Amino acid sequence: MKSPASALGLIILSFLFSCDNSSDNSETFEVKVAINGLEDSKVYLRDFRWNVLDSTNSVNGVFSFSGIMESPSLGFVAIDGRDRDRIALFLENSDIQVYSHSDSLPFARIEGSKSHSLYEKYILAQRAVSQKFDELYQAYRGAEDAGDTLAMASIDAQWIDNEEEFEDWIKVFIANNNGSAVSAHLIFRELKYQVELDELEIYVDTLSSSLDESEYVVLLRDRISKLRRVEPGQPMIDFSQNDSSGLAISSKEFRGKYLLIDFWASWCGPCRRENPNVVAMYHDLKDQGVGFEILGVSFDTDRDKWLGAIHDDQLDWPQVSDLRGWKNEVGIAYGIEGIPHTVLVDPGGVIIAHKLRGEDLRSKLEELLTQAS
Fold first, then answer.
1. Please, what are the domains in the chain?
2. What is the pLDDT of residues 30-49, one digit of tens each?
3. What is d(CA 74, CA 250) in angstroms, rounded to the nearest whole number?
4. Could you report the per-residue pLDDT of 155-205, keeping only the tens digit for each?
5. Is the dihedral of CA 297, 300, 302, 308 positive or negative?
6. How many other β-carbons are positioned within 10 Å of the β-carbon of residue 28?
7. Distances, alpha carbon 185 to alpha carbons 1, 50, 174, 226, in Å
8. CA 243/CA 285 separation, integer angstroms
9. Which residues pair with 110 in a beta bridge?
């Protein structure tokens, strides 16, 4: 005789997988979910930006969501209080079935979405490369403990090779599936930070015109347009924000000098580690040639922490912030999606370069200030 749990499992499986998944022309989606071992709880269907699309309550691990997708897109089934432990699935207007165990949500079985079937190929490739990285990391730790610098260098090279191999795999995948929103998702997720602007635009242009209304493509084209406006050779986008004393500072005030716009935040570890180098460079170069100034733009939201970091790191150049974090208006205008990030501007207000740091930044400034003296 079957146990109650086993019987429930059979009922769940019947609920999920007896449905007809053949409809490709549905104007709505329904996601039916069954999670063995899940206590009754609030559950959510979220989009790729973590906005809530639908919510309900699970009963004996069974629940469903419904709605309309303008175009296929990645979504997540999330359980209240377990946001980091979730089920990723590619949503589209069809009947989708999800079956999992509460202890292994990332490995859920998903049927009924052609886009998700394609997305699973990427997931398998990603898991394989992640396993390689885990193995390399453990090997590196062992070599480091043993003081084996040759082995460490070899592992570093293998790490780079694996990164390049996976990026190449993604590019081939996109080329072979240019009519799928999955490819648009991968450009948005994997390539938009990894490739140069011209290459990014080429990849977006290779996508089928049927994806023009995809949210991924709309966001990618918007980013490309925004970055074109602030690429080297373009006039800087002028701005004004309040400094640490509450007084408005305009970027126009720095005309006639080389200006480094330094995007940072008190909570950004790499930014704080870079600050001593920037302080030293600033004092060495600020009075050379036509002069050099820094204007810090903080992505902080906590005023006290922002002011504390300015004091602790001895940042004695002008600092501004609207205290809106990643929604900082200057950051949005310049398309900043990662910090630290620098923008170097010439005395006439024309952008010279992005992302210069450390010795590369110092060398470039020394060259420019010498030429201008």
1. 4-112 (2.60.40.10), 117-229 (no CATH), 240-372 (3.40.30.10)
2. 999 999 999 999 999 999 99
3. 41
4. 999 999 999 999 999 999 999 999 999 999 999 998 888 888 999 999 999
5. negative
6. 11
7. 47, 15, 10, 19
8. 23
9. 98
Question: Peptide bond before 72: cis, by omega within 30 degrees of 0?
Answer: no
CA distance 32 to 66: 9
Q: How many CB atoms lie within 10 A of CB 106?
A: 11
Question: Side chain identity at 283, as an amino acid letter?
Answer: H
**Cβ-contact 272, 345 below 8 angstroms:** no
Q: Which amino acid is at 114?
A: K
Helix/strand/coil percent split, the chain, to 5: 45, 25, 30
Q: Is 86 helix (H, G, I), strand (E, B) or coil?
A: strand
Helix 269-285 to helix 358-372 angle (10° resolution) is 20
Cross-strand pairs, 258 = 292
Tokens representing 233 are 């050779």
At 101, list the tokens: 């165990």
Please tell me the pTM assigned to this model: 0.78
Structure tokens at 252: 């126009």
Q: Do 216 and 72 form a contact (C-beta atoms < 8 A)? A: no
List, as one string, the DSSP characters of 110-130.
EES-HHHHHHHHHHHHHHHHH
Count CB atoms within 10 A of the CB of residue 41.
Answer: 16
